[in-house]
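WARN retry 2 of 3 for item q-0093 after timeout on previous attempt; input resubmitted unchanged.
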Amino acid sequence: MLIYLIIINTLTFIIYGVDKFLAFKHYYRISERLLYLFSIFGGALGALLGMFCFRHKTLKLKFYLVNIISLILWILMLYNR
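OK item q-0093 returned
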């Protein structure tokens, strides 16, 4: 489980960086739905770090809510394991 979480969070962090780069270059972007899915499937910490490191999606409240709620649920799920 730990290896999965490390991989999904690393991928999520990278995807946020790639999406920021694509936005900067005005290219086709990664869908918000995919960003949400990566967060829900365990990449919430990587998403939050990506938001702050790349200053990406920081003005969208929905991203904060999805990422924080996902992170809390994953922590509770791992704690109760």
